[in-house]
Specification:
Subcellular location: Membrane
Keywords: Membrane, Transmembrane, Transmembrane helix
Organism: Aureobasidium pullulans EXF-150
Protein name: DUF1741-domain-containing protein
GO cellular component, one term: cytosol
Largest sheet: 2 strands, antiparallel
Number of strands: 2
Distance between the termini: 58 Å
Strand order of the largest sheet: 1-2
Number of helices: 31
Structural class: mainly alpha
Strand content: under 5%
Number of domains: 3
């Protein structure tokens, strides 16, 4: 028998999908020939291999992309065409490929970012045509995509461009075509509120693009948006996202003690199997916990920028954000879940610059709500269940009953003050905390609302902060705006002392502030001397505190001459009797504070926007 002309080829060590060959053929081929239409038809019919595509692009430097820019331009142009074709699965595959490609290409380091990126994606001659087609295709898919899956993939592509090209002029094309109606309609139609995080993040990034340098139409859109149904959907999305973000902290360290059970008791002595108890989850080491906490919050935290934009620009949104409730849930309010997550964030804000920036944006948001008289009133009247972080000592007392939002906010500010003390103090963080407390106390005083709260914890924390500032004065005095922080802090304590009768719920709360001033008397004097507070704009307020402390200290010292040891009850009695001989000069302007001005925080807001861009890129891949 004659030998067959067919020969058996050796079996390859590994098989790879056909699309991987096309990736290499497209991006490693240096010739400038146009790929035939059949190539592109096959390319977008094949299911993308995101991992291989991403790795291939990672291996290319910016200069390599410029060398194959002709093929990159062809890819982008054809991907836009197929993404808008409405033909399945080519449209979905094209969007997936665009997501990977744009994320990788826009993350490269270019010598001339704007012009080089334009050269890679479209070419200088065709940039208007290509990008106008891109934004039109994305907007159409977001607003009227045939499936939610297509709509969300279009959002991801837009997020890639918005986050990757944030520092270039390319986002101008996104401001020329208004995506806001499409994004809001998509959010309204989504069944799962958690899915709305990406459209919301996209809206927030677009609203922050060059907003301090030029007119941004998304700013107006945020301010004018009044569709209550969609606003409620947005609030629910914020609620769900904040629950997810908070649960990531809890997964590292569960700060709610497990209730007693027979199974738990048997497990404690090694007999848990008898009660069918689940085996204990291994507890991470302290170093492991530190590393995990440093990674928090997750990338979904970029949505906090959008929350800020809505609260600052739109009073109707703020009212619904505070007043919306979710039926059938134990913790039933978007604002409660937002504040709950913030409380966890504040206890760990010092762990990374990213966490600090997100803490700042949430404090900007809370400050804006507190400054609005109607919202502040709601905060003082609305009572909801709210879980506050108890992951780090010192811990505030556990309150079994539901409390007002205002009381919870004060707790959060105290926690933030107590848990972020460092020699390299984040002065901006503390100015925001103390400023929010000053605004709340001012509102309570003027509205004569007697807020039920453990006020002694506030006095203790504020005066402990004074002691910290005194001990580390040499390290802290050179810090930028430290004097402004001290001025606000002293005014807050003095205002609480002089106006306490108008907002404290009982006489014991008022007595306690005098008691604490006596207790911290030596620290107050040292504090005044360390920061030269006997002169300047803070002098009058500081002198009141020192005078009150000295007045009661002298009375107590006089009694000690008669009685060897005084009990706390006897000291309190002396303080009450001392009111008759205490004279305090009225100090005007203690309740004065400036309304929030966004322009004063321009540099910080730009940094936060860049951080949100980085999180957006991490979110889509």
């Amino acid at each position: 028998m004659e030998q067959s002309p067919l020969t058996q080829q050796s079996r390859p060590e590994t098989f790879e999908p056909k699309v991987a060959q096309l990736y290499r053929q497209l991006f490693r081929d240096r010739d400038d020939e146009e790929k035939p239409e059949g190539f592109w038809r096959e390319f977008f019919l094949l299911k993308p291999d995101n991992a291989r595509f991403g790795q291939l692009l990672d291996d290319l430097e910016a200069i390599d992309l410029l060398h194959v820019s002709h093929h990159c331009e062809q890819f982008v142009s054809h991907a836009i065409t197929y993404a808008g074709s409405g033909s399945s699965p080519s449209d979905e595959n094209a969007l997936d490929n665009l997501t990977v490609f744009l994320t990788k290409v826009l993350s490269k380091k270019y010598t001339n970012p704007s012009s080089d990126i334009i050269e890679v994606l479209a070419g200088l001659d065709n940039v208007d045509t290509v990008f106008n087609d891109l934004v039109a295709t994305l907007d159409t898919n977001i607003s009227s995509g045939k499936t939610v899956r297509i709509q969300m993939k279009a959002v991801q592509v837009a997020l890639c461009v918005a986050s990757g090209a944030f520092q270039t002029g390319l986002l101008t094309y996104f401001t020329q075509r208004d995506f806001f109606p499409s994004l809001m309609q998509l959010i309204h139609d989504l069944e799962d509120p958690l899915e709305a995080a990406q459209p919301l993040l996209l809206a927030g990034l677009l609203a922050n693009y060059n907003k301090f340098e030029t007119y941004n139409p998304y700013h107006v859109r945020f301010a004018d948006f009044v569709n209550q149904e969609t606003i409620i959907q947005i609030c629910k999305s914020i609620e769900g996202t904040c629950v997810y973000l908070r649960d990531q902290f809890v997964a590292i360290q569960d700060d709610v003690p497990e209730a007693w059970s027979i199974g738990g008791t048997l497990s404690y002595i090694g007999l848990g199997a008898l009660a069918g108890a689940k085996p204990a989850v291994p507890v991470p080491t302290e170093d492991e916990m530190k590393a995990k906490f440093a990674e928090q919050p997750r990338s979904q935290a970029g949505i906090l920028l959008t929350v800020y934009e809505f609260v600052v620009a739109n009073k109707a949104f703020s009212a619904d954000f505070v007043g919306t409730y979710t039926e059938g849930k134990k913790e039933s309010s978007p604002i409660a879940q937002y504040l709950s997550f913030c409380s966890y964030l504040y206890q760990h804000a010092y762990r990374s610059q990213r966490a600090t920036q997100y803490a700042h944006i949430t404090l900007f948001t809370i400050q804006n709500m507190v400054e609005d008289l109607e919202i502040a009133k709601k905060l003082c009247e609305t009572t909801v269940p709210l879980r506050l972080s108890r992951q780090r000592p010192p811990q505030l007392p556990v309150i079994a009953t539901d409390r007002t939002l205002a009381a919870n906010i004060i707790d959060m500010m105290i926690d933030c003050i107590n848990h972020n003390l460092r020699k390299k103090l984040d002065v901006e963080l503390y100015m925001l905390n103390v400023g929010i407390l000053l605004r709340l106390v001012t509102f309570l005083s003027k509205a004569r609302i007697r807020l039920t709260y453990h006020w002694s914890e506030l006095w203790r924390s504020l005066l402990s902060f004074v002691r910290f500032l005194t001990v580390y004065a040499d390290d802290l005095k050179p810090l930028y705006r430290i004097n402004t922080l001290i001025h606000t802090l002293v005014n807050l304590i003095t205002l609480s002392l002089t106006q306490g009768e108008s907002f404290l719920p009982d006489s014991s709360s008022y007595d306690d502030i005098s008691y604490k001033l006596v207790e911290f008397g030596p620290s107050l004097t040292s504090f005044r001397d360390a920061y030269t507070l006997h002169k300047g704009e803070t002098a009058a307020s500081m002198n009141i505190l020192v005078h009150v402390s000295k007045h009661y200290s002298d009375l107590i010292a006089g009694q000690k001459g008669k009685v060897k040891n005084l009990s706390p009850k006897e000291v309190t009695k002396i303080i009450k009797e001392g009111y008759e001989t205490l004279s305090i000069e009225a100090k005007e302007g203690l309740d004065h504070w400036d309304l929030y001005r966004e322009s004063e925080h321009k540099a910080e807001l730009k940094k936060i926007a860049r951080t949100a861009c980085a999180d957006a890129r991490a979110l889509v891949l």
